[in-house]
Amino acid sequence: MKMSAADICQVLKEGELEKRSDNLLQFWKRKTCVLTTDSLNIYADTQKRSKGKELKLQSIKKVDCVERTGKFVYFTIVTTDNKEIDFRCSGEENCWNAVITMALIDFQNRKAIQDFKTRQDNESASPGQQERRMARAP
Question: Which segments constitute the PH domain (predicted)?
Answer without folding.
Answer: 10-105
